[in-house]
Amino acid sequence: MMNGVVSIRNKNGEEKVKIERPGGSSSPIWSIAWNPSKDEHNDILAVADWGQKLSFYQLSGKQIGRDRTLNYDPCCISYFSKGEYIVMGGSDRQASLYTKDGVRLGSIGEQSNWVWTCRVKPDSNYVVVGCEDGTISCYQLNFSTVHGLYKDRYAYRDSMTDVIVQHLITEQKVRLKCRELVKKIAIYRNRLAVQLPEKIHIYVLKSEDPTAMHYHIKEKISRKFECNLLVVCSQHIILCQEFVGATDPKSSRLLMAKQADWAKSSKEPRAAAEMYLSAGEHMKAIDIIGEHGWADLLIDIARKLDKAEREPLAKCAYHFKRLKHHGYASETYSKMGDLKALVELHVETQHWEEAFSLVEKHPQFKSDVFVPYAQWLAENDRFEEAQKAFHKAGCQDEAVKVLEQLTHNAVVENRFNDAGYYYWMLSMQCLDIARESEDKRDEMLKKFERFQRLAELYYVYRSIQRYTDEPFSSHMPETLFNICRFLLNNLTKDIPPGISKVNTLYALAKQSRKLGAYKLARYSYEKLQELHFPSRLLESIELGSLTIRSKPFHDSEDLIEGMMCYRCSTNNPFLNSQGSVCINCRQPFIYSASTYEVLPLVQFYLEEGISDEEALSLIDLEVPHSDQKNAPGHVVDNGEPQSLKLEDDLDNAEEDPFTAKMSFEQGGSTFVPVKVSRSVLRSMSRRDVLIKRWPRPLKWEYFRSLLPDVSITMCPSCFKMFHSEDYELLVLQHNCCPYCRRPIDEPN
Predict the structure, then answer these.
(1) What residues contact residue 153 under an 8 Å CB cut-off, 6+ apart?
(2) Which CATH superfamily is domain 5-140 in?
(3) Distance (Å, rounded) from C-alpha 191 to C-alpha 172?
(4) Is 37 exposed, middle or buried (0-12, 13-18, 19+ CB in 10 A)?
(5) Common-topology check for domains 5-140 and 147-294
């Protein structure tokens, strides 16, 4: 605080420790920082105040050591990630590096204004400095090796302010604390010279024993020297302004490599690695660094290497992968320009977003990413996403296998809505394969037809299963009545797994009785008596079979009229062993995919030689009759669901060429489709036509509305048709098509 006090409080805000700096308000405290090191025995708090002092305290409030004089007003203090160094800055207009004990090691960078903030990037040697004038500077600190070697004695700098002397034979070590930055080290026989910022210390061994390790200071030279190399002799020191052997780089590297070999054999891997780097032996240095897991040092090497040095870069990337440093490995492969290795890295480490981003720029790696991604999804039971990934990768066979597994699971688990959706996806997958592969076209088109049929059967059975298994049903009796009849009309001898004929007949019997179709209800109960049904339904079926006998032996006339064929006006029975077709003209019925009422649509076909594009253009060329110019209704066809809006007053059947084409020979046993010529197409109103625009190799399907007052909407994805009001309500409820689950905001 500004009064020179540091208050240490618990998480509830209660003060536990109070530290008062000498000088009080004349020493306001501008920055504090906890040492993040996990190796310290106590929590250590560094305090920088404008009495120009740096001090250290334990959590108890006890000061550690003496105050360090700064000679400037400190504004910021920041520890390295492991707590080994401190960065400070302030009114001296520079950021400085200190040891964890507060010994100044040197300037990181001079600025033109006060330094107000400084931060160290975690687990790295990068320092960012912010100044009063708004400028931000970033520095990378390189801690070079300072060392010396003479026969069996090796001396090197440690923690920037200490010197460790190691006997390479006995492996004994001794630490000399200099408490200042060690700049140069030289060793010869029994002498050791250490250059500090403002002086040089000369140490000698206390004993002549060749294994002795006890050094003491013999001389202090209090003078600042600038030199490239320090050499100590028996009676003198030599300061070299140019590096010895600089004229012979090969010899210099050889010497450095031998020193590195010594360091490696003496179990000083970090020193050995740095010497190998100085000698240009990158591969040896990288192996040592990688084996010891020093990722920070390794990335520094990778960043300094030229991108053409592929072998050492590849070795760096290998170690990053092994050490699970995905970011560093990615950076290295990117520098090399090795896109394939980069893709493999993202895949192996399951960094899928990075892999997808790379594939967007380089689509040639699509299969390298999406195939393993799909396999990973499948292994994690995310089959639906796996199918889409296989499909995106172009692996159609795998996509189909995953979908088949999904469908099987859905049926086994009685998730019939999902089963219907997966069968629809399977059918579209088969259509994709048929379009891309001529060899498989016939086989895939047959599968497409089968899967389309199964998709609709499971889609409708979902409602029956919910009615029989759950206490409440969201469907109106008329809808369940229609669904049961549709399902029974379309079930062959081979009933798909999971679909129960018992449940279907039971639901039909109940709804038939409720709606007055007593004859159909009696038939349903009789059929149920021929089947094996669960004991839970026994009482209800037997009671229903008895009570239905008290009802009339006929069906409601209103229900019968609802089964009229819109082509030949024949009233059809509720159940038809021939399927969902008219018993008279064999015209297939078109159902609403919500209520399964028969829609007033008749499918027609194009005469030979008329293409889909030509047919569309002929219909679009329609010139309205004089009495139709103001007729209400329209079809919107802009990629969204096609909506057929027809309201009233279009009674021109005697003038309509299409109506003439609907005629057929009575009593025929084969279906005669409605085929239209160019003149008939030209006479049609685009408002009256719905088109299923199937992708190739399928042909488009055309439907003509015969009731102007019925509004019909078709999904542009699955081509299922609905009463418009039903479709709009379902889409609002689910935000997607209820059949194919196409999102409402998805472009067509």
Answers:
(1) 165, 166, 167, 168, 187
(2) YVTN repeat-like/Quinoprotein amine dehydrogenase (2.130.10.10)
(3) 17
(4) middle
(5) no
| Token pair 């004994």: residue | 172
10-residue mean pLDDT series, the chain (748 residues): 90 92 89 91 93 94 94 95 94 95 92 94 92 94 86 89 91 92 91 93 90 91 84 78 54 72 73 78 86 84 84 88 84 84 81 76 73 62 58 59 73 88 86 84 90 93 89 81 92 86 92 90 89 84 87 82 84 88 90 93 91 88 48 45 45 62 67 88 87 91 88 92 92 89 76
CA distance 461 to 748: 28
Distances (CA, A) of 659 to 41, 632, 704, 743: 97, 21, 10, 37
Place of tokens 């021929």: 530
CA atoms within 13 A on the CB side of 499: 26
Structure tokens at 235: 């009676």
Ramachandran category for residue 92: left, alpha or beta (phi over 0 → left; psi -120 to 50 → alpha): alpha
Instruction: Return the C-alpha torsion angle 330, 335, 339, 344, nearest 10.
Output: -30
CA atoms within 13 A on the CB side of 535: 0
Residue with tokens 């290295």: 332
Q: Quickly count helices (H) and strands (E) in the chain.
A: 22, 31
Domain boundaries along the sequence of the chain: 5-140, 147-294, 601-734
Q: Please report where in the chains the tokens 């409601």 appear, as a residue.
A: 556
- Does domain 147-294 fall under CATH 2.40.128? My reply is yes
**Is the separation of the CB atoms in 352 and 373 below 8 Å?**
yes
